[in-house]
């Protein structure tokens, strides 16, 4: 694979060449087929066996280095898809266009879209390991799952017994210097309502209210940073507007993914045309309040209202307008509780990720995460009850388990020894408030001893996503050393290790 000229000279060359190839092939969730086929052809050219399972996952297998055939097999795991987000006004077709990457101050970045370092760098590291000349390694298995970002369908559909290895290294973490040994589980909360509609009064004009300029981010990793949620802000503005003005709500939309903090949201509403001057002053005052609220976390927040031409003749009935706006304004969003066991780590949270109101049909999607599956269920049930109190239908969907930490893991002990030898001190141990696939993989393959690590990635799930070049080189050095150490493990080590794996 040949890297683009932007990445061609970065070290390690093999890893960045693979990442460049990934950036050239669109790979949104549910649209990974083209990339998967390209990787199958690459594997065939390199003498690497490949198979695609019933769920669509790609599994690549390579024999152990000479003399290491008896060592327990190792699985390197990542996901093929990426979150697709672009800044307002940017024309980028994520099903056709390659990602435009740049190198800036030691980072690889996509300024106007998501980069796909989550999880493209992890995939690139695994592929580079398969072709690295002279690397001493055990039997290698690379599991590349599909549709991780919008449902974890690949990991969910993995048939028990598919994987042959005894240990698994997940390459989907986003902060160098940590070994992750646990992650949050999650569940979606879906809300729906069919609104009554009524005709717009004569003499009323239509306006479009737009919230934009927010930073957004990953709904797990960034949920505690105090960033604005565009949907919540829009609902707050519309709720406040409906008190002094006779506001008739026509449409509303915001967010594109339940696992991304929404950066933009907009609404169309009708008001007496004579109130245009008062509306302009109100918007100006509201924006000033927001700028004060988010002075430390959002420096480009924008609230714009402009009159529009439209053929719309109906709006949501007043009772349903109040119902929706009061629900959205009061709905839980953000950190619910911090972890008692891991200082500074969020335990339970939710994110109002997507909302839409068109032709009277309302829908909203929340993403709930927790280090405890029980606490995730409790919060989801509370949110369903909250929706029901406003007469809205709500239910859960897409639940997946968390990954329970196992501090006594043999794999962790070996990785710490290797890390200390390579970098002069042990890595810190951490859990992550995000949904790694390890919980689902432990369900289907409970014998696996697992760990996760990765480079420094910032701004995942939002435009401007970037990955630090130096930390990628550190990950590559660590991965090679771990594989070499595992190659020296005696046959039967997997049997003693299996008894220590924490079950979910």
From TrEMBL:
Keywords: Cobalt, Dipeptidase, Hydrolase, Metal-binding, Metalloprotease, Protease, Zinc. One of its GO terms (biological process) is proteolysis. InterPro entries: Bact_exopeptidase_dim_dom, Peptidase_M20, Peptidase_M20_dimer, Peptidase_M20C. It holds the Pfam family Peptidase_M20. This is Cytosol non-specific dipeptidase. It catalyses: Hydrolysis of dipeptides, preferentially hydrophobic dipeptides including prolyl amino acids. Its EC number is 3.4.13.18. The keyword Zinc applies. It is an enzyme of class 3 (hydrolase). It comes from Sideroxydans lithotrophicus (strain ES-1).
